[in-house]
Amino acid sequence: MAPRVKTRDRIVAESLELFNAQGERNVTTNHIAAHLGMSPGNLYYHFRNKQAIIAELFAQYEAQVDQFLRRPEGRALTVADKTFYLEALLAAMWHYRFLHRDLEHLLEADPELAARYRTFAQRCMVQAQGIYQGFVEAGILLMEAAQVEALTLNSWIIMTSWVRFLCTTFGSHGDLSQDMLRRGIYQVLALEGGYASAEARPAVEALQQKLFVPLDGRFDGAAS
């Protein structure tokens, strides 16, 4: 017999599902309570408002990213590590896609969350820069320090704005797919293409082909 899920955990999990499917702005605490078949008062016993649920989900997202966004200890990086990082980023973006869809609104609505996010973002960029430096030291990327810093910043900008780009440019909202997010991961990898060493280029190009997802004429449709 499976263990019974705690009410607090059910609230968090079902809220994530609703936020991802409908957008956080379109979901109220009353919607969440009705979806769970509980009274609003029961929900408020566990979370004082919707911002508290969002903060809990951000903490989960933060912990997931912190777990994988780090250099391995005691060995050099490989192209296989690049695959691991990109796939892990894709999984995190997909699972918590509502955070990426309307990030500015979420942070404006909760100053405490905004402060936590700034600290998280700075930590991620430091870790990412260290990872890129590891690829340089392993001879996979050929870059100077200034190029490593620029690549880190550009990658972060793509990763944090890709979902919003899809929504604002193509009108995608409730129909976001993992393939559409995968194209964002490919865009990050494409930034590195010119820096790949001759030895690493075949493996990097194979990874690019694996991650590439066509936009199915979306640019043509946007221009017509």
TrEMBL record:
Sorted UniProt keywords: DNA-binding
DNA-binding region: 28-47
Entry's Gene Ontology molecular function annotations: DNA-binding transcription factor activity; transcription cis-regulatory region binding
InterPro entries cross-referenced by the UniProt entry: Homeodomain-like_sf, HTH-type_TetR-like_transc_reg, HTH_TetR, TetR
Source species, domain of life: Bacteria
Organism lineage: Bacteria, Pseudomonadati, Pseudomonadota, Gammaproteobacteria, Pseudomonadales
Pfam families linked to this entry: TetR, TetR_N
Keyword Protein transport: no
Domain HTH tetR-type: 5-65
Protein name: AcrR family transcriptional regulator
Chain segments annotated as transmembrane: none
